[in-house]
Amino acid sequence: MQKDSSSVNVNAAGVAKNTYDAIVIGSGISGGWAAKELCEQGLKTLVLERGRNVEHQKDYPTATKAPWELEHRGRMPRKFLEENPLISKAAGFGEESAHFFIKDKDHPYVQEKPFDWIRGYQVGGKSLTWGRATQRWSNFEFTAPDRFGYGLDWPIRYNDVAPWYSHVEKFIGICGNKDGIEAMPDGEFLPPFEFNCVESHLQKKIKEHYKDRHLVHARWAHLTQPTELHLKQGRGKCQARNMCMRGCPYGGYFSSVSSTLPWAHKTGNLTVRPFSVVHSIIYDEQKGKATGVRVIDANTQESTEYFARVIFVNGSALNSTLVLLNSKSNRFPNGLGNDSGVLGKYVAFHLYRGSVSASIEGFQDRYTYGRNPTEPILANYRNLHKQDTDYFGGFTTFVGAYRPRGAEDAGETELGAPFKSALSKPGGWRTYMYMQGETIPKASNHVRLSDTEKDQWGIPLLVTSVGYDDNDEKMIKDFLTQSSEMLAKAGCLDISPYDTHQAPGLDIHEMGGARMGRDPKTSILNGWNQVHQCKNVFVTDGACMTSTGNQSPSILYMALTARAANHAVEEMKRKNL
Amino acid sequence: MNRREALAATARVLGGSIVGAQIFLTACKTPEKKREPFSPDDIAFLDAVGEVIIPTTTDSPGAKAARIGDFMRVIVTDCYSDAEHKIFVDGMATLKALSQKKYDKDFIKLSGEEQNTLLSAVNKEAKAYASTKREADPEHYFTLIKQLTTWGYFTSEPGATKALNYLPVPGRFEGCVPYTEGEKAWAL
């Protein structure tokens, strides 16, 4: 398969039939945005998705199922777990959501170090099952690697992305509060979900004890008060069911399937081709640019080529990197745009190992109505203006309180009516904090193609060589200490700090591999997400990340995608592409 | 995203770890052993045991109405490891034998009071065992039965809708509402 386009023999009619203005590889959270922007600008756009089709509402088989309608009440059968030890670990994975995740044996990869690579191969990708937290990055995060000397400088700043954050926020619908916190900039928000009584208590206590720590509403992709623009998408108000990962029949949270893809479809410019595994990008040496994409049909193994003026790579961080690595030509023997040898390197992720749980007395006369699909957040308070810890980077903290069912002494009661009664009532309140921490990109944390092993489509397997470092251990320690202290000051009891020691990857925030930068010698992409050495190829998913910051990354991918897509259209108009 | 927290809270209530949950953590490849299917008598027996643990009360049906025996059959068959399966099946035999030994009758033929007396003693034994057992030691069979009964009952239609307050589509979220002692908990 690894041949240059010069050797490909396709007749002119075939080429015309398979030619579009733009090709988007991947239909997940960033691919959907590329499709929307490009189609709206009038470009005939082909979206290639390696998995099956998923249609809004129609393909959410468990969306309205009651607990007793799930055969194993949410638990996966033993045989499935034994066959799928990797994917079963994913947050939110269960009988009600399993259909939106891969099965282990279908998609092998080589773990040189333990790395849990969580994937969802279908139209909509992981946007169906994402966490939905959508805080903006602050300028602290864009500048910290350079300011403190732990990484390559980003070629862009907060102000470059801010208008695109607004553009995305208005369209997808973000609920939150304008808090005026420098470390977590405000955006275009719908009203937030309320705090419960214990969360309000924690907010008050933390404010009392710490001047620089702000427990506020996080920002979430939920329609608490849909606007005209959301209603036009066919989406409605979030019903507070908190069953998001099954797919939302109301369109209450944002996914490609409920929002961007149907919107793009309405333009008449969109073609989505499911079951299309992208083998590589075709590079034309005479033209000095990419001309198309080689696709293998997932079911028939048939190979087809599609052509376009611009190509957007949105296959998820590691798969996009894999596609570039596998796009070999005489000009780029080590992968497309990889003269520098940086492709596949500087892979990083978010540190999710630390959490603290506790109980809190009181508030027995308070309860909640409905199910909040969001959580409060404690904005990053570490290493902002200056380096003030013994490690690099910062972390954000998700915080919450809830009142589980079952009186505390249920286990002690007699069998029968007293036991039943104790379990029918709410128990005492519980609280928790968990971290989402920055990790430091390093050349040694990398992915590459296997020299020997291939997948069922003949594509080399990805080798992951990504692990923790000392910086991570120090940050976890600090998080656990600080969080335990805050909960203690808020009057919590039974404070239990916990380190899962989980492998990287389970955070599902893997980033980098084709990082952005100013210099082609040290980066793959420029400040517009264009491959430095092949400008009509744009990579706008997690692969582009120069550093990880501490905020949930999906909305940044969406903003960068919209920004890049509009740049691509302008460049096409200027005949530069 | 607080699945770990939820698991921990349930374990605390029941005084033990959730059986079957460890399979989430370690994927042990065990050869499939042949398992005898549950008989209709087994299901009736488990219904009766479940009904003692969670009985019909004035406001809601009990575990038998939730078809708890059939639920246990599904989970023990499909989700339990071979080791857990053996503890459960041996435990059923132990309970049946206890009934014969003490009352010379099948468990399902006992009076409500006799069933209660027998299971209360076993419940005490299971709690005493749980309080001294090391983490790696197997669970007591009655701990498994009790966990399955409570899990199955409160996620069943009668349990969720009658013993609890079932609200599939809340429509809105209110963070801080009054609660009066005795009111039912939300089912979800």
UniProtKB/TrEMBL annotation, chain A:
Cofactor: FAD
Gene3D superfamilies: FAD/NAD(P)-binding domain
Key words, A-Z: FAD, Flavoprotein, Oxidoreductase
Domain Glucose-methanol-choline oxidoreductase N-terminal, residue spans: 231-327
Pfam families listed in its UniProt record: GMC_oxred_C, GMC_oxred_N
Signal peptide: none
Record domain Glucose-methanol-choline oxidoreductase C-terminal: where: 441-560
GO molecular function terms listed in the Swiss-Prot or TrEMBL record: flavin adenine dinucleotide binding; oxidoreductase activity, acting on CH-OH group of donors
Family: Belongs to the GMC oxidoreductase family.
Protein name listed in UniProt: Choline dehydrogenase
Automatic annotation (TrEMBL), chain B:
Official protein name in the record: Gluconate 2-dehydrogenase subunit 3
Family annotation (PROSITE patterns): PROKAR_LIPOPROTEIN
A Pfam family annotated for this UniProt entry: Gluconate_2-dh3
